């Protein structure tokens, strides 16, 4: 049994509507902070939080769009996301506030903490790790990456890092992840890259209509698509990382 519900909080001049899921019963439980992709906090990230709760983690899916999602509105999404990716201070403020919400939840084990981020949400959790957030593990799924990454900038990363993308992703390519991994290597970080053959950007996202009905069309850009097999494999890589870094 698990318990879950929305949590509102204010950051970046907006009222955010995050989603907290937790195991039933007394903790302390390890905890995972989830950062959604550019589309917004949709059913997928909520479902991942629920599944993590079933696995024995307190999971908080942050919001950085003020309760909005951008299905069918790619230009509006980019207008929100691109300035954010160019502003590390804003990303840090958003991430730190969400992390505070997670750490304030009952029965959270502050010594067993991890992060999971998709797209721009992956960049937000990476920024938190860069400044020393005590993540034992961090999984960044086709993350937004800094234009220039230097080892000295990532020396504060203390946990294991998983970087994951599809082989056919034109937005976050395998080569970009390996280049970023070189900076992590120089910083002495425990890192790995998983490349999922044939998968495109947002390979994990079941196509949805603006109403969120599975199977409907989703307005998108070239190079974005769902891949059922690699979605499952990518999720298993995340769970393996969490189990390895935060054994029960």
From TrEMBL:
Keywords on record: Hydrolase
GO MF entry, a single one: hydrolase activity
Record domain Dienelactone hydrolase: where: 17-244
Entry keyword Hydrolase: yes
InterPro entries per the UniProt record, alphabetical: AB_hydrolase_fold, Dienelactn_hydro, FrsA_esterase
Similarity comment: Belongs to the AB hydrolase superfamily.
Protein name, entry field: Dienelactone hydrolase
Biological source species: Mycolicibacterium obuense
């Amino acid at each position: 049994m698990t318990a879950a519900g929305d949590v509102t909080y204010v950051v970046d001049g907006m009222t955010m509507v995050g989603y907290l899921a937790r195991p039933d019963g007394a903790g302390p439980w390890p905890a995972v902070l989830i950062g959604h992709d550019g589309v917004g906090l949709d059913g997928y990230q909520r479902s991942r939080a629920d599944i993590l709760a079933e696995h024995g983690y307190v999971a908080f899916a942050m919001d950085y769009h003020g309760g909005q999602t951008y299905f069918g509105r790619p230009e509006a999404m980019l207008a929100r996301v691109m300035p954010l990716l160019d502003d590390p201070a804003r990303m840090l403020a958003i991430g730190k506030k969400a992390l505070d919400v997670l750490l304030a939840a009952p029965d959270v084990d502050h010594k067993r903490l991890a992060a999971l981020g998709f797209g721009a949400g992956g960049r937000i959790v990476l920024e938190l790790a860069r400044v020393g957030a005590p993540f034992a593990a961090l999984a960044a799924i086709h993350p937004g990456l800094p234009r220039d990454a230097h080892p000295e900038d990532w020396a504060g990363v203390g946990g294991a890092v998983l970087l994951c993308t599809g082989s056919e992703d034109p937005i976050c390519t395998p080569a970009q992840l390996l280049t970023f991994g070189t900076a992590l290597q120089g910083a002495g970080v425990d890192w790995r890259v998983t490349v999922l053959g044939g998968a495109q950007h947002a390979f994990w996202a079941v196509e949805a209509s603006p109403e969120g009905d599975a199977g409907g069309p989703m307005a998108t850009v070239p190079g974005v698509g769902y891949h059922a097999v690699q979605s499952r494999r990518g999720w298993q890589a995340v769970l393996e990382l969490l189990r390895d870094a935060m054994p029960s």
